[in-house]
Design brief:
Pfam families: Cys_Met_Meta_PP. The chain is α+β, with helices and mostly antiparallel strands. Helix content is 46%, strand content 13%. The chain is built from 7 helices and 5 strands, in the order H-H-E-H-H-E-H-E-E-H-E-H. It has a 5-stranded mixed sheet with strand order 1-2-5-4-3, with helices on one face.
Length: 160
C-alpha cells in the first residue's frame, strides 16, 4: 500500500513543485517590499529576472540560472527587525502557515530556526551560520499564493 501511495505522489510531483516554486518566488519578492524585513534568502530570486536577486555574487546568480532552470524549491528564509520577541509575534500572528519544523509538506510551514532546529547550538555558532534570533524559515505548500502573502503581511505588520 505504501508503494502505491508513493507512486500516486510521484505522478503529481512536478505540478506540486511548480506551484511551490511560483509561490515561493512571489512571496520572496513580496517580502523584499516590507520595511521591517531586513533580508530575504531565496536563490529563486535569481531566476525572477527582476534585478532583486539578493545572492552574494553575480556568479552565484549565474549558477542558479544554469543549474536550476525550473526553480530552486519552496523553502526560503527572511530576517526581520528586532529579535525573538518580534519573531514570536509574527509566528503567533499567522493563520494559514502551520508552526512545524518540517519542510517539503503540502501545507505551508513557518518556524524560527534559532529556537527550534538550532536551539542546542551556541549563540556564537548560530550567528556564524547565519541563524540569528531574527530569522524566520518558510516552507511553501500548495495554498493560494495570495492567501499566504496576506497572512504574512498581516502577521508582520501586527508584530510592529
Amino acid at each position: 500500500m505504501n508503494a502505491y501511495l508513493q507512486l500516486l505522489g510521484v505522478e503529481t510531483l512536478a505540478v506540486r513543485l511548480r506551484q511551490q516554486v511560483a509561490s515561493a518566488t512571489a512571496i520572496a519578492e513580496f517580502l523584499q517590499t516590507i520595511p521591517h524585513v531586513r533580508a530575504v534568502h531565496y536563490s529563486g530570486l535569481a531566476l525572477a529576472g527582476d534585478g532583486h536577486a539578493a545572492l552574494q555574487s553575480a556568479s552565484q546568480n549565474e549558477l542558479v540560472r544554469r543549474d536550476f532552470p525550473r526553480g530552486v524549491g519552496g523553502v526560503l528564509s527572511f530576517e526581520v527587525d528586532g529579535g525573538r520577541e518580534q519573531v514570536a509575534r509574527i509566528l503567533d500572528g499567522t493563520h494559514v502557515f502551520a508552526y512545524v519544523p518540517n519542510i517539503g509538506d503540502a501545507r505551508s510551514l513557518i518556524v524560527d530556526p534559532a529556537r527550534i532546529t538550532h536551539r542546542e547550538v551556541s549563540p556564537q555558532f548560530r550567528r556564524m551560520s547565519g541563524v540569528g534570533d531574527n530569522l524566520i524559515r518558510l516552507s511553501i505548500g500548495l495554498e493560494d499564493t495570495a492567501d499566504l502573502i496576506a497572512d504574512l503581511e498581516q502577521a508582520i505588520h501586527g508584530a510592529y
